[in-house]
Amino acid sequence: MHPLHLEGKWRIQAGGRSVVLPKRANEKASHVWLKGFLWYLYLPNYPHALVEKEIGHRYKPDVVAFAEDWHEYPTHSPRFWAEAGQVAQQKLETLFRQFPDTHFAVAKWGNAGPWADLLRGITRLEKRRAPVDLLFFPEDSLERFVSTSGEITLTLDQVLVQRLG
Known about the structure:
Order of helices and strands: EEEHEEEHEHEHE
Distance between the termini: 40 Å
CATH class: Alpha Beta
Number of domains: 1
CATH topology: Restriction endonuclease-like alpha-beta roll fold
Structural class: alpha+beta
Number of helices: 4
Strand order of the largest sheet: 4-5-6-7-8-9
Radius of gyration: 15 Å
Number of strands: 9
């Protein structure tokens, strides 16, 4: 067990801040780490980013950020929305259409496979005014980017495959 794995939750540290990530019994560890990595990577641009925060939308984001306060929805769109791991194409199509000014990130483990083409197809159909980032994390990301104390040392250019839009 990793030293930062607590009962039912994990704590991840980044630049003097930390976030506690819920770990459900049926949830893969890789999904929890992807959420933590996304939070960490986009925190400089979105300092109000939250993980697994219910915002009152049909879909619950893995990571979300508003200008200042998450209570802004539904009067304001999220500034940032990230999805980690498995995500349905229909969900992405709906979100991209509903939030054309929201910066999106989709994170996966391993190689790009069909995801780059899929996202290009979805974003081509929408009138987006904000980018969509596609990130792929190497299988050895935990060993490479997380210290034994739980400090993440990772940069966006180490995992960002493509920015669309």
